[in-house]
Amino acid sequence: MRHSMNFLFDNSHFTDMDAAESGCYLITNGLGGYSCLDLAGGTSRNDHAIFMAALKAPNVRYNMITNLLIDILIDGVSHSLSTQRMADGTCMDGSKYIESVSFDSNIFTSTFNIEDVRLELRIVMVHEENTLMLDYHIFNPKLRNIELVLTPLLRFTPKNTPLGADAVFSIEEQSADGSIFAIDGNNLQVLCASNMDTAALSESSLYSMKWTLDTRDGRNDTGSCVINHQLKKRTSSSDCENIVIYSMCGITDMHSRLQNGIADAFDSAVDNEKTRISDMIQQSRLKSRLGMQLLVSADAYIVNRESTCGKTIIAGYPFFEDWGRDTMIALGGTTLATGRFDDCKSILKTFAKYEKNGLLPNLFPEGDLTPMYNSVDAPLLFINAVYEYIEASGDNEFLLECFTPMKNIMNAYENGTDFHIKCDTDGLIKAGDALEQLTWMDVRVDDFLPTPRHGKPVEINAYWYSALCAMGIFAGRMGEHELADKYNAMAKHTKESFLDKFYDKKMGCLKDVLNGTYEENQIRCNQVWTLTMPFTMPDSDMAGQILDTIQKKLYTTIGLRTLTMDDPAFCPVYIGDMKKRDRAYHQGTVWTFPLGAYLRGRIRQLSSCTPEKKTVISEHIEKTFDALEDWLYEGCLGQFAEIYDGGCPTISRGCFAQAWSVGEILRASSEWEKLQNID
Predict the structure, then answer these.
(1) What's the rounded Cα separation, in Å, for the pair 366 and 139?
(2) CB 170 within 8 A of CB 185
(3) DSSP state, 538?
(4) Which of 38, 431, 548, 578 has its CA 20 to 30 A from that of 228?
(5) d(Cα 84, Cα 69) in Å, to the nearest integer?
(6) First to last CA, the chain
(7) SS3 50
(8) Does residue 126 sit in helix, strand or coil?
């Protein structure tokens, strides 16, 4: 049976508090909820929580149970197994007891060893439910007298929202035997089922933490939870499972889940998750270790959207929601490369429904608010995604559903629409003015855009050309032959202008944006997408020059720099308060997702180069994939982060898990597998 990677660390990893906080696991539930703690079991971010529930998928997320403190008494001697920095400057360091931690098939396991007593904690979430399951399994070969004490840290606040000083929590039994009880607070309720004893505390107290990684990023770095009860178990047996289930699914569902016993409920959840992942791997037909792991990693981002009754893609954990641009970029890797055609179709249908003035939502806000449409790339990427979906799935009927909104997009871009988006007389798309933020380099600092890119951005015109070619084919299939001829003629005009105006022989690559400013001659990673769309403009010689320049100026093993290191605007480190970080965001900071396009460009190059060059490029591709596999151990296990420092990329920054980072590398890995015919 093909299997994803098993991430394993022994005690040598946990040398100090910094090491304990240097990585994390991420388990998601398909709704936008998640469980995420440091590898030592603590929280170093406000957004860490052992139980983050999505009350309305995917973005109405609540930090319900931040953590459970673990204390174990062995023959009357107490040992704290928790690791956490406190707001008062002190630390709890239980990492010295860690024997190993592992992460495999969305199940996190942490094993502690204390005086020959082993405690194995396994954590799993139920897919498409706000349900978390924990098993604190005690192995006690010498039959010592043991008491396990778990102290839940209650929060019940919207994600990233502080706990109010007036918060009141209570617990109430929901079953005659006391095995199920309700925790109430802030007008919310979580059911808890356990085979441990529940002990209400005579008085609630606050537990105040410090979050080191938020300190680094200039965010609020302290916060509190409420403690009002504990879970306890006394035992002297050789083997004792202590299971805790938290759920927001209601008492009927909880009783149904427990009908065969709480141990069976936990084992079933583990088995179901392993089977679900195994089935995904089988369906994908991916065979490389990297490909299979990235398939599992990509699953974290594909979630339900309640408001549209369809699927969507979370852009990144822990900070981001589902965005149009990110969705379209991540779609090919997360769904098409993995054979998840139904999910791909569901996502595309949602965006087709929300087409307006030839634009697609860049953000679906919750409630009755109007979606935000400030994206020049998402509509063009949508057309290319539809083309790739139909080609991959053979679902030609889907063209009937999407043809009208796609025609609307093309008409709007040709004749002009919001945000100064319009096709110029040279056949190239221009967009943006003033403080409009329209491409992926869209950060804004007060009334300043560090990378405005107003004018004619290189990647936008690559998307435009490919969309014109795709629409020429679609129009022909729909019997609209005059329209097909029009699109084909427009594509020819666009290509001629593009190659004439963007290519700079002296630079050995393409200009980043045509706007008559110094920005034209900045060497950036955006040109890489001119080589990877379904239809491209540069010939093989030009493509080779572009790729060689990117490798020389922008390439790292974890991503591409957004700007060359010799540019005066280059920022080597992404750290500090938000304004400082935003100014560095696209000024040299390394992003992983463009590396996927770079690798795909290199893979395409192999079909037109000499045998000697083919050997060199193939070795370069293999080395890059090997290095990427190692990067999966840094930061969030099994995931690629959003960004890394531009000067020396060694530590993940921004979101520790990013959809398009995973999706684009997965897409490249899938194409490499097919070319290599990996068994």
Answers:
(1) 47
(2) yes
(3) S
(4) 38
(5) 9
(6) 13
(7) strand
(8) coil
Of the listed ranges 10-19, 436-445, 541-550, 670-679, the least confidently predicted one is 670-679
Token digits of residue 564: 């060359």
pLDDT, position 442: 85
The residue whose two tokens read 């509509």 is 379
| DSSP assignment letter at 164 | P
Where does residue 404 rank: exposed (0-12), middle (13-18), buried (19+ CB within 10 A)?
Answer: exposed
Report the amino acid identity of residue 352: A
Residue 34: pLDDT over 70: yes
At residue 443, the pLDDT reads 86
Strands (E), 506-653: 509-510, 513-514, 555-556, 559-561, 590-591, 635-636, 643-644, 652-653
Please report the beta strands in 44-166, taking only residues with DSSP state E, as ranges in sequence order. 49-56, 60-74, 77-80, 83-85, 91-93, 98-104, 107-114, 117-125, 131-139, 146-158
User: CA 529 to CA 462: how far, in whole Å?
Assistant: 7
> Who's near 206: CB < 8 A, 6+ residues apart?
224, 225, 226, 227
User: Strand, helix or coil at 73?
Assistant: strand
Give the number of other Cβ atoms within 10 Å of residue 30's Cβ.
Answer: 20
546: closest CA among 493, 587, 598?
A: 598
For 581, the 3-state DSSP assignment is helix
Dihedral angle at the C-alpha atoms of 379, 383, 388, 390, nearest 10 degrees? 130
Q: Quote the longest CA-to-CA distance of the chain.
A: 86
d(CA 408, CA 417): 11
Query: How many angstroms separate the CA atoms of 325 and 107, rounded?
Result: 31
Question: Three-state DSSP class for 568?
Answer: coil
Residues 6+ apart with CB under 8 A from 566: none
What pLDDT is attached to residue 119?
Answer: 98
For residue 603, what is the DSSP state? Answer: H
What is the rounded distance in angstroms from the CA atom of residue 664 to the CA atom of residue 594?
Answer: 8
Among 241, 258, 240, residue whose Cα is nearest residue 249 = 258
Query: Which residue's structure tokens are 């049976």?
Result: 1
Position 93, amino acid: D
Tabulate helix, strand, coil % of the chain (nearest 5): 35, 30, 35
**Is the predicted pLDDT of residue 447 greater than 90, yes or no?**
no
pLDDT digits (tens, 9 = 90+) for 211-239: 999 998 889 999 999 999 999 999 999 99
- The three-state secondary structure class of 493 is helix
